[in-house]
Amino acid sequence: MVKLTAQNRHDYAQSVLRAINAENIQQFRELFFELHPQDQLEIYLETSHSQRQKMYEYLSPEEFAEIFEELQIEDQKKYLLELNETYAQDMISHMSADNVADFLGEIHETKASAIIEGLEEKDAQDIKELLAYEEETAGAIMTKEFISLRASSTIKEVIEVLRQEGPDAETIYYLYVINEKFELVGVVSLRDLITSEPDSLVETVMSSRVVSVPTSEDQENVATLFKKYDFLAVPVTTETNKLVGIITVDDILDVMEEEATEDIGEFAASRGATDLTLSAFSAAKKRAPWIILLMFFGMITAGVIGQFEETLESVVLLAGFIPLIMDSAGNTGTQSLAVAVRSLALGQLEKKSLSKMVMREFGTGLMLGLMCAVTLMIIIPFLHGSVWLAFIVGVSIFLSLSIATVIGTIVPLAINKMKLDPAIASGPFITTVNDIIGLLIYFSIATSLIAYL
C-alpha cells in the first residue's frame, strides 16, 4: 500500500487522474488500489463528473461500495444520482447494514423503500430492524455484521468459521458466545482462540462476564462505556438478553464527533448551524430562536440600567464601568459552565461530588473576584481620583464574579437533573443572566453610596 505524504500526494493523484483520462483501466486499478481507502476517497472527490463516470466503469459495485460508505450523507445523496439503478442497487447490497440504514434514514421514504425492496430478504430485514430503532440509541448505530459462536464448538471449528465468514464481519477481535435461544452468555477474544488448543471447547476459554448494552441505550452513554473499558466492540442485546448486534469503536468515534459538534452548537446557541455546507439562510434560521430570545433578555438588561437612570445622571462616570462589570461576570460564568458541562459529559460527577464542585467553583469565584477587586481598587484612584468609586466597582466585581461562578455551575446541573442535555445552558444564556445580576449588584451598591461620590 502506498503511503502518501504532503509532497507526493498531488503527484500520485495526478497519475491516477491521467490514467482515467487515458482510459487505461489496468494502470488506474493498479495505482488506485495501492492507496489507503481514505486516499481513494479524496481522489474520488477531486474528480470531475466525466472522470467519475469512468470510475464507475472501472470499479465493480462491491469495490465502489467501500468508497461510498466513507462519504458524508449529503455527498452520498448527491453522487447516488450519478449511478444507474442496477449499479446503485448492487453497490448498496455490498455495504454494511448500519451504513445503509444511516443513508436510507436521510433520503425520501419512497426512494428508501424502493432500495430496500431490491435487496436480499435477510439484508432488507436487517436494515428495516435498524431503521425501526429510535435515533441516537445503541440499536440505531449497531451493525448486524458480526460472528456469534456456540459454547460447545471447538476452537478448530471456530477458526474455520472465521476463515469463511471473517471477511464479511465488522470485526473479529471479539467473538460473542450465544446459547440455543440466542442469548448472550460469553465473550472470547481472537487472542484466546489463537493461543488455545484446537480441540478445546469455546466454553473453556470464554469469559462469562460480558459487558453489553441494551438496544435502547443512549449513544452518548455507549461512548462513555467504550472510554471506560477501552473496548474495541461491545455487544447489543434486547431486554431478554438476546444478541442482536455489535457496536465497534469506529462507530463510536463518529458518535463522539457528532455529540461534540452538538454540544458546541448548544454551548454557542447555534445548534444545527455549525455545518459549513448550510446556506446563509438555513444557518440564520437555525440561530434565530436563540438570538431573538437573547434579544429579549437584552431588553431586561436595558430595563435594569433604566431603573437606575437617576444614579447614572448623578455620576456619569459610573457608566464607564458597565461593560467591565458585565463582561467579567459573563466570562466567569461561562468558564464555570464549561467545567460543569464537561464533567457531566464525561460522567465524572456523582451525587457526593456535586456539592463539592459547586463549592469549588464558588471558591474560585471568590478568589477571582478578590484579585480583580484589589486590582481595580489600586488602579481606579490613580485614573479617576476617587477611592469611593474604586470601592463601589471593586465590591461589585467581587460579588458579581462570586455569584456568576455559582450560576454557571448550578444551571447545567439543574438542566441535567431534568433529563435534558446540559449543553443547552448555552454560553450566551449564562452570560446574559450574569450580566443582569452584575448590573443589579453594581447599581444597588452605587445608589446606596452615591452620597460619597
From TrEMBL:
Chief location category: membrane
Keywords: CBS domain, Cell membrane, Magnesium, Membrane, Metal-binding, Transmembrane, Transmembrane helix, Transport
Membrane topology: Multi-pass membrane protein
Chain ranges passing through the membrane: 288-308, 362-383, 389-415, 427-452
Span of domain CBS: 142-204, 206-262
Pfam families xref list: CBS, MgtE, MgtE_N
Any one of the GO CC terms: plasma membrane
A GO molecular-function descriptor: magnesium ion transmembrane transporter activity
Subunit structure comment from the entry: Homodimer.
Family affiliation: Belongs to the SLC41A transporter family.
Protein's job: Acts as a magnesium transporter.
Descriptive protein name: Magnesium transporter MgtE
Organism: Salipaludibacillus agaradhaerens (Bacillus agaradhaerens)
